[in-house]
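pinned: reference chain
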Amino acid sequence: MLNLTIMNFLSVALIALVVGLAVLFTMVRYDLGPKGRLAKSGQWFLATALGTGILSLAVKLMIILTVTNFPGTVIEPFIEQPDVELVVSEYDPLLGIPASKRFLWQSLDSQPIAANQVARSSSPYVWQTLPDQAPAPENNPMTSEKVVLGKRLFFDKNLSWDRTLSCSSCHDVIGGSGDDGLPTSRGINNQLGGRNAPTVWNAAFQSVLFWDGRAASLEEQAKGPLINPIEMGMPSWEEVVQRVLDDPAYVPLFADAFGADTAIDIERIAEAIASYERTLITPDAPYDRFVRGDLDALSAQQLRGMASFQTLGCVNCHFGPNFSGASLFDSRAPLRIFPIYPTPFEQQYELTRDTGAAMAGSGRGSWRVPSLRNVALTGPWLHNGSVSELKEVVRIMSSVQLGHTGRYLVWSDDHKVMTKLDRPALSDGEIEDIVAFLQSLSSDMLLERIKLAKGSTDQAIVAH
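pinned: its structure tokens
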């Protein structure tokens, strides 16, 4: 059925046609006919011949103008579409909470899916570099003495129950990328955890910590693994404090950091560890050099990937200097639903086996948006460490988070607006471009540390 706009257009055209024919017949009757000395029958024949030509031309022009100006409305109803089903979204991918505004989605080339329309700003996206220093809270200002103490605590295996693990065991910052390189970490007694260890590099810029965002500061996060039964396994924070008191080397370090009269307790221990972790930042990636003005810092492929990262909508969650919606720079929505779109990846990689911060029975997880800084160095990836190739991570995220699986019709019941979205699956070339851009987020300093550590390991193997 033609819409109202086309009906109005045709109405105007019809009136113009009637007026034109009336003018033509008048000219034949009172001008051309008498001058040609035509009989009445001859006048009617001339008027009919000329009128038929005008009518034919008018019909052709109307068809051309209608198809040209309204192709979607005129042509698409005659194109056969596959049978589809309308389904209702229950999640807001931008805020990571149950959606208050429901949308109806209709898939045009694939199975129906449940998802919401991600809001996009019309303002241009502004790329930002990472600061050279991380901010510290007012109640725990940075001092060199705290950093020295915190570093010793970070590497102290005596703070685990069987004295085999330290913070650095799962967060290698000497020869690694701030994680342990395992799908999920191992704790005391060789116990296997359920989640992948996030990197500690640039964690100082995150507004919430842990995959489920349950810690609101580095100080709070530092206390958690110490008494986790499958991580460092200490029975209580009092036992942690006692381990510190048992080492006489700590007494002058705490005195220098907090004052000789300050009691050693779990709060001071956590503050010192957090102070050290705030020195673990990497503002030296090729990406940072590019944004600061070195236009040769990125390759052509990385630039293509950077553009795709923006236009595809990756920046809706991974934005700002730390490439995370859970950062101190903008922490309005630190948790997001994952995965949003049901796809075969969900079963293949068990993406919903653990639902993080989501309510029980939700069927979808809720997770902190991780930083993409040094992401090319921190595999395996995702909260369960189930993906071992960065290309596959990009493919998964473009599908389950951005809906790049087909073509959709989106109906906003609140605004009474229909939108057609074309979101085809990414090509291998597009994925490789994005991976190349993500590699530009890797710190030069970390790459050098990893290279040196690998060289030392290789030499040790040869010597052995």
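why pinned: The beta strands are 87-88, 91-92, 97-98, 103-107, 335-338, 365-368, 406-412, 417-423. Confidence is low (pLDDT under 50) at residues 72-121.
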